[in-house]
Amino acid sequence: MVPIIAAGLGADLRNRVAALRKIQETWLADWQSGKLTSATLREHRYFSDRMLIDAVVQLPASDREGIEPIYLPFLAEAIDWCDGFNDPSIGFNLFSRSLGIIGGDTSIAQPQFLGILRKISTMIEALPQLAVRQRTLANMAVAMGMVSAFTSLNAETIALTARAARNTLALDDKAQDPLLSPNDKKTMASLLLMATVFMPGTERIELNHFAKDHGGVILTSQNKSAGYFGAVDAALSGDWIEADRLMETAIDNPQVMKETLPGSSPAQAPIISIMFSKQMLMSEAAAVKVKTGHSEAAMHLFERSRSTALQIRPQADALASELRIILGGETIVQVAAGWMGTFAVVSRPKDGKVARTSLYTANSGGLALISNYVHFDPGQRYVPGGILAAYYLIRTVPRRGPSPALDMFVDDLNRRTESLVGDAIRQALSKAGAKPNERIVLILPATLAMLPVAGSRGADNISLGERYELRFAQSLAHAAGTISSTKGTPGAGIGFLASSSSNLDAVSFEQAAIKPTRAILGAATADEVFKGLDGTDYWHIASHGSSDWGKAKANGIYLDGKALLNDADIRGARIHHPPRLVFLSACETAILDITQDIHRYASLQTAFAAMGAQGVVGTLWPIGDGAAALLSVRFRDYLIDDHIRPASALRRAQLWLRDSDARTLRNFVTNKIALGKVTATQAQGIMASLADFEAGSRPFAHPFYWTAFELLGG
Question: Is the separation of the CB atoms in 690 and 662 below 8 Å?
Answer without folding.
Answer: yes
